[in-house]
Amino acid sequence: MRSRWLSLLWVLLTLPLAARAVELGEFEDEFGEGRLRPMPRAVDTRAILVERRAAKGRGLEPRGAVPRGMRPRTAVEQMRHRGLGSPFLKVMEERQRKVMLAMGLIGPDFRPAKRRAKAFEQAVAGLYNRQHRHFVIVVPDPLPKKYRLDEVTHAHEFTHALQDQHFDLAVVRGNVEGDAAQAVLGLVEGDAVYSQLVYLAGMGYLRSLRGRRVGFVPDIGRRYGEGFRRGNLAHWKTQPPGERIARADLEGMIFPYVYGPQFIQYLVENSPGWGAVRGQLLDGLEPTKVQAAWALVNRAFSDRPQSTEQILHPEKYLTNRDHPHRIGEPNLAGVLDGWKRLDSSEMGEFGVRVWLDEFLPERDAVRAAAGWDGDRTLVFERAGGGEDADGPFLVASVSIWDSENDAKEFFQSAAVMLTMRTDATPARLSIGDPRLLRWRAPENPTGARLERWGRLVALVHGADEATAAAVAQRLFDAERHVDYGDRGKAKQ
After folding, report:
1. Whole-prediction pTM value?
2. Is residue 232 domain-shared with residue 355, that is, in the same domain?
3. Is residue 486 one of the residues assigned to a domain?
4. Do 2 and 153 touch, CB atoms closer than 8 A?
5. What is the distance between the alpha carbons of residues 379 and 103, in angstroms, rounded to a whole number?
6. Domain check: are 114 and 236 in the same one?
């Protein structure tokens, strides 16, 4: 899917699989078979040329015709209203709102669902429908008499069709969720974005080329991604605070379009065929040379990136594979009686970065999240608070890091975040290298606990001291079989 500045899929990835299927089902029905408006003859002729050049630049031959058409933007608006009225999705959205509130990503009066839906309605420019294997271009309503084809969106969506024909997107995106699903989305969307850049460059549409039709331009993925993020953040800041989406939502939504093309660029520029296509006119390149440049990307569709860490640091995927450490569900039976679990997920390096970025300068958040190796983060709400009541909430997170120094860096940044969230000064309960900190605000029985064992860090926020200590111990117990280097426990 290509959007002007957002992707609905981040929202869907944060919901349970059942909710995801319902919302995607409604979306695909609205853009399904029989609802497509055919393209005017002149536009259709141009679309055929765009598809030929897009396929040439991507190095994939179509394996059959790809139906495509147009849908008016009013159809997107109608879909949004139906989605907001779904009782099941209302429950899911309310749960997600509470999770964001518990994490400190939004305030108590913030209602993200309508803001996200409206942002998507305004932003979506095209969609590839995996169910019907066709793609749709969103057009103004009414259609102008002299409507010109959006070639960039067309090339992007056609690339998704080629991906589906050659790699089967249902298989590529199957059996993953959370951070791993966001990584796969970075691969799929990053490929489509990089392909549209090759198309633009090959047509001579990039100003820097001064009319030359060079298809493969060095560093183009990074330059596009960084510019795309800057533009989106600038646009977000100009919106009225009462209308714009949460900053964390924005970062998640644009992730595949910012970092995906940079991941693809790394694979292309490290392929054996890069030297033969770099800076060459696309029209004169032999198909075998183009295919060789895409070889590592094609392989990635069967050997998928497993974490946002690998998307953010492509060398950890290609050169020195850093497999994420999957942390299982901790046994909290008997420790959190009276608490209802709202969420249990893996944030990944990118999720940790976005969380810290809410409280710290961006460069500090980026540095602290680097070195991530795995995590399990849970959010609970005290039962019996009433239907319309929020909280109290408890956040429990255990994370493992590539080295003890990485764990220490995260520990220090998390300490700053918890100090800001509790509005209290931490009590240092260990001698020398701090490995155990506790917070308790005046006249508030709940606080926070931050503890480190070697490469492992446990964080608990929103519990009294005894409960926080018990939860932290269970978080550590879940990973006791791993050698973390320093097994010395801090004094209780």
Report:
1. 0.90
2. no
3. no
4. yes
5. 8
6. yes
